[in-house]
Write a structure and sequence with these properties.
- By secondary structure, this protein is α/β, with parallel strands linked by helices.
- The protein folds into 3 domains: 119 residues, 3-Layer(aba) Sandwich (Rossmann fold), CATH 3.40.50; 124 residues, NAD(P)-binding Rossmann-like Domain (Rossmann fold, 3-Layer(aba) Sandwich), CATH 3.40.50.720; 162 residues, 3-Layer(aba) Sandwich (Rossmann fold), CATH 3.40.50.300.
- Helix content is 43%, strand content 17%.
- The chain is built from 15 helices and 16 strands.
- The strands form 3 sheets. It has a 6-stranded mixed β-sheet with strand order 2-1-3-5-6-4. Strands 8-7-9-10-11 form a 5-stranded parallel β-sheet, with helices on both faces. It has a 5-stranded parallel β-sheet with strand order 13-14-12-15-16, sandwiched between helices.
- 45% of the residues are buried.
- The chain binds adenosine-5'-triphosphate, (3R,4S,5R)-3,4,5-trihydroxycyclohex-1-ENE-1-carboxylic acid (SKM) and magnesium ion.
- It is an enzyme of class 2 (transferase).
- One of its GO terms (molecular function) is ATP binding.
- Its cofactor is Mg(2+).
- Pfam families: Shikimate_dh_N (PF08501), SKI (PF01202).
């Protein structure tokens, strides 16, 4: 191969998409499950340049003729360039994380930083934090080693930290919804950064947003940035504007990966507009109500009769969690989805949420909607729920005239959100 990625398991990697979006070359994902296979591959040296991921970032250093001083200090190489059989090693994860901090305006000067995790990425993020002027860097572990000054997650709560960086796989797909640190218990947090990029917003980031932390960022831009800086080494040529390339590729990836989620009052058009919007975007359409009916094997009014609203809501949460962690879907929800914060978290982790707003007098009454019993009931429900829709949504899409106009408005709102 000419260009590609080695690591033990690569099924999750977006590197092929990113590199091929960036440059003309082909980029191969080459899983090497055992250390013996990794060594054989590195001994053979039949590549122009590669990226290296877990668990070989240290092992690869044994094969490098020269190692960039920063990579040597961190103790990890993720980019290797082959010059006539001599291997040169670099660490562009450092540059990627540095970009993430710069792009989000994280000010480390004189601050206390908590790094969650003691694995490979700990040292990379610690080096960036130190170089950007952090005063204290504390490491948090589920199994802390007091001799190394490591803290437990409980002790972390009283550390007085201003910045949190997660380098553990907690909350990563498919085991989403996991968060070991109680961010709400840490007053004065200024930034929470997560190197995990799938889902887009991990449970840690969702909780940080809810706690009002001003800067909250996931790992997608770091991943894209490390690839852009690696491509510069691969091709021995800087991009005219590397940061613009990072922004372009990150935006394209977000557009491809994020779900689009429609919320709004019962009968406001989520299913109808959702189907048309899915078609316009070339996405698979998922109607959460239809999924509830399918998995229950009976209709929504029948579920309400047998299990009450509570039973229906539990099934709704289950479906929001099932589909919310997937990618690239158009998800249409039932009107009551906003009643539980965990539903919104499940849908926000990988989604843009649009509120389809139809005038209350135009909302359908009845027709299998158990709570929309009369025009008056619908009016009361809409007064109660408006603030919940407003709080959950990234944008409001009016559905005041035709379905086509609503689709056009939704496409415009999405462009604005995804390009920013
Ligand atoms: N802009 C529109 N013009 C005309 N009819 C519309 C418009 N938007 C929606 N409708 C109609 O309103 C009715 C309700 O729409 P739909 O079933 O899509 O709503 P929903 O939000 O999915 O409802 P629920 O919350 O019950 O799932 C449908 O008959 C649909 O055709
Ligand atoms: O998952 C991936 O594709 C990668 C992750 C990081 O280890 C990067 O250092 C590597 O270059 C690519
Ligand atoms: Mg519907």
């Amino acid at each position: 191969m000419e260009y590609g990625l080695i690591g033990s398991r690569l099924g999750h990697s977006y590197s092929k998409i990113i590199h091929e979006m960036l440059c003309g070359y082909q980029y191969e994902l080459r899983p090497l499950p055992t250390e013996a296979e990794a060594r054989a591959f590195l001994e053979e040296r039949s590549f122009k340049a590669i990226n290296v991921t877990l668990p070989y970032k240290r092992l690869v250093m044994e094969y490098c003729t020269e190692i960039d001083p920063r990579a040597a200090a961190i103790g990890a190489v993720n980019t290797v360039v082959n010059e006539n059989g001599r291997l040169y090693g670099y660490n562009t994860d450092y540059m990627g994380f540095n970009y993430l901090c710069r792009a989000h305006g994280v000010d480390f000067g004189g601050k206390t930083v908590l790094i969650l995790g003691t694995g490979g990425t700990h040292n990379t993020t610690a080096a960036v934090a130190r170089d950007r002027g952090a005063a204290r860097i504390l490491t948090v572990s589920r199994t802390p080693d007091p001799a190394k000054g490591e803290l437990s997650y409980e002790e972390a709560k009283t550390s007085g930290a201003q910045i949190v960086i997660n380098t553990t796989p907690a909350g990563m797909y498919p085991n989403v919804g996991v968060c070991n640190l109680d961010v709400a218990a840490l007053p004065g947090l200024e930034a929470v950064l997560d190197v995990v990029y799938n889902p887009h917003r991990t449970e840690l980031l969702l909780r940080a947003e809810e706690a009002g932390v001003p800067i909250v960022a996931g790992g997608l831009e770091m991943l894209v940035a490390q690839a852009v800086y690696a491509a510069e080494y691969f091709l021995h040529k800087p991009f005219a504007d590397a940061e613009e390339e990072i922004a372009r590729v990150a935006a394209a990836l977000r557009r491809q990966l994020l779900n689009v989620v429609l919320i709004g009052m019962p009968g406001c058009g989520k299913t109808t507009v959702g189907r048309a919007l899915a078609k316009a975007l070339g996405r698979d359409f998922v109607d959460l109500d239809a999924e509830i009916v399918r998995s229950a094997g009976c209709s929504i009014p029948e579920i309400f009769t047998a299990e009450g609203e509570e039973g229906f809501r539990a099934r709704e949460t289950q479906q929001a969690q099932n589909f919310g962690k997937e990618k690239g879907l158009l998800i249409s929800c039932g009107g009551g989805i906003v009643k539980k914060p965990e539903n919104i978290r499940a849908l926000r982790q990988n989604g843009v949420i649009l509120w389809l707003d139809r005038p209350v007098e135009a909302l359908t009454v009845g027709h299998g909607r158990p709570l929309s019993t009369s025009a008056e009931a619908v009016r009361q429900m809409e007064t109660q729920r408006r603030p919940l829709y407003a709080a959950a949504a990234d944008a409001v899409v009016p559905n005041h005239t035709t379905i086509e106009a609503a689709v056009t408005a939704a496409l415009e709102a999405l462009n604005e959100i995804l390009d920013s």
